[in-house]
Design brief:
mainly beta; Jelly Rolls; 5-stranded antiparallel β-sheet; 4-stranded antiparallel β-sheet; 17 strands
Length: 254
C-alpha cells in the first residue's frame, strides 16, 4: 500500500490535475475505464465502498485531495480498514480511481443539476411473453392471464432496463388472484448464462398469498451492473383466468 501511494504521489497525481477535473454532461453517468481515472463524483455522500458500489470488484484504490490537510486521502478495498484514510466521498468531489477490471460508470446528475436519490421503473403486463410456445393466454392493455391451468400456460417473462449503478430497494405488483396464485420475481443472471438455473439469482419476490393487491416486498441488497448481468421479471399464474397480472413497479436508489 505504501509503494502504491508513493508511486501515485511521486508524479501520477497532482493537485493541479484534480483542480482541473473535467465535469461531464449534466444528466449523464460518469464512465470509468481500466487504468487511472480523474473524474467527478456525483452520487450521494457515502463511504467509499458504497459510493463506488457500481464498480465493486473493478477498482484497486480511490484517492481524494484534502485541501484542509494538504494531503491525499486513500481508500482501497484490498487492505485492512485501519490503513484507509478516506472515510467519505462527497457529492461533487474530484477523485482518482484506479480501475483494474472492465470498468463501468459512476452516478450522474438529474437534468436540473440535482443528485438523483431514488426512482421507479414500471412494467406493464402487456410486455410479458410466455416461457412456452404451447401457452394459451390472453393479454390486453395492461392485463395478462392464462386461459387454462396447464403448466405450459403458467410462466411469463419480461426484460427490465434498470439504471447502471442503482440499488434495488423493492417491488410492487398489481394483480388479481381469485383462484390459484400470482408469483412475481425480479431475477438476474450473468450475460454468459444460457439458462442454467443455478446461475439465476432472485432479487425480490411478491406473492399473492401474502396479501391483497397491490402487494410489495423489499429487495435483497444488489447494485445494478448492466455490463455483467441481464435483469428480467418472471411471473407464475397458476389459477387460470382467475390469476391475472396487471403491472409491476421496481423501486431503486442511486
Amino acid at each position: 500500500m505504501k509503494r502504491l501511494r508513493a508511486a501515485v504521489l511521486g508524479g501520477i497525481l497532482s493537485a493541479a490535475a484534480l483542480a482541473s477535473v473535467a465535469i461531464g454532461d449534466v444528466g449523464a453517468a460518469t464512465p470509468v475505464i481500466k487504468g487511472w481515472n480523474n473524474v467527478p463524483y456525483f452520487g450521494g455522500t457515502a463511504p467509499p465502498s458504497e459510493a463506488l458500489a457500481s464498480i465493486n470488484g473493478q477498482y484497486q484504490a480511490v484517492f481524494h485531495w484534502d485541501a484542509g490537510t494538504q494531503q491525499y486521502l486513500v481508500y482501497s478495498p484490498n487492505v485492512p480498514d485501519y490503513v484507509n484514510s478516506l472515510r467519505q466521498i462527497n457529492t461533487g468531489d474530484a477523485i482518482w480511481v484506479n480501475v483494474s477490471g472492465q470498468g463501468g460508470s459512476l452516478p450522474g446528475l438529474n437534468l436540473d443539476g440535482t443528485v438523483p436519490t431514488s426512482g421507479k421503473f414500471s412494467v406493464a403486463a402487456s410486455t410479458f411473453v410466455p416461457a412456452s410456445d404451447l401457452a394459451i393466454y390472453e393479454k390486453g392493455f395492461n392485463e395478462l392471464y392464462p386461459v387454462g391451468t396447464d403448466a405450459a400456460s403458467q410462466r411469463y417473462f419480461a426484460p427490465v432496463n434498470l439504471p447502471q449503478g442503482a440499488s434495488i430497494t423493492g417491488m410492487t405488483a398489481h394483480f388479481e388472484a381469485t383462484t390459484g396464485q400470482v408469483q412475481v420475481r425480479l431475477d438476474y443472471t450473468p450475460l454468459a448464462n444460457g439458462g442454467a438455473p443455478a446461475q439465476i439469482y432472485k432479487l425480490v419476490e411478491v406473492l399473492s398469498t401474502a396479501g391483497p393487491s397491490p402487494q410489495s416486498a423489499n429487495a435483497y441488497a444488489h447494485t445494478i451492473d448492466n455490463g455483467a448481468n441481464v435483469y428480467f421479471l418472471v411471473v407464475d399464474l397458476t389459477g387460470g383466468p382467475g390469476s391475472k397480472l396487471r403491472g409491476v413497479t421496481i423501486s431503486y436508489t442511486n
